[in-house]
């Protein structure tokens, strides 16, 4: 199971990097073509679509690698046992929030089927699907982190993998 999760993480890291590079390249190319007098009208829609997906992949990678910004000045002043319980409670709150994003994101995705991007005949559901799919990925990561917290003595957990993102 750990090996499958490792490969899953590597695929997700590759997709996040690919999406981010694609968004930057597309926006840059769009600016060049607009300057040259040949605007790429569809580029902003594709960039928006790719950006929506890259956000969720990036947040999941950050959560997995423990590289999200947090202010733990007060948390560090608590005893180890209290710190562990508080971090576990916060992780459970995060999981509940992500489940609500899944529950409300699926109908949003379904309701967006008929909505099209302005310059293309592509359903906006491709963008809104990033919410439930990304939330599922984040829920998996949060559950893995929660298990690691329960197993640790102080409620913290070590990030797996290296910091070789993009």
From TrEMBL:
GO biological process: C4-dicarboxylate transport
Keyword Membrane among record annotations: yes
GO molecular function, one term: transmembrane transporter activity
Cellular component aspect of the GO annotation: plasma membrane
Membrane topology field: Multi-pass membrane protein
Keyword terms, alphabetized: Cell inner membrane, Cell membrane, Membrane, Transmembrane, Transmembrane helix, Transport
Pfam families recorded: DctQ
Origin: domain of life: Bacteria
Location relative to the cell: Cell inner membrane
Family, per entry: Belongs to the TRAP transporter small permease family.
Protein name: TRAP transporter small permease subunit
């Amino acid at each position: 199971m750990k090996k499958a999760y490792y490969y899953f993480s590597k695929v997700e890291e590759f997709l996040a990097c690919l999406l981010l590079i694609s968004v930057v390249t597309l926006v840059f190319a769009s600016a060049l073509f607009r300057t040259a007098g040949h605007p790429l009208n569809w580029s902003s829609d594709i960039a928006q679509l790719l950006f929506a997906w890259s956000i969720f992949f990036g947040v999941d990678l950050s959560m997995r690698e423990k590289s999200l910004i947090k202010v733990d000045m007060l948390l560090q002043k608590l005893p180890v046992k209290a710190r562990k319980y508080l971090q576990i409670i916060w992780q459970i709150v995060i999981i509940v929030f992500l489940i609500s994003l899944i529950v409300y994101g699926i109908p949003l995705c379904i309701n967006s089927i008929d909505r099209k991007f302005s310059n293309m005949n592509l359903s906006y559901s491709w963008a809104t699907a990033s919410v439930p799919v990304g939330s599922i990925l984040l829920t998996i990561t949060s559950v893995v982190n929660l298990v690691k917290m329960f197993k640790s003595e102080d409620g913290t957990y070590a990030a797996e993998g290296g910091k070789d993102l993009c």
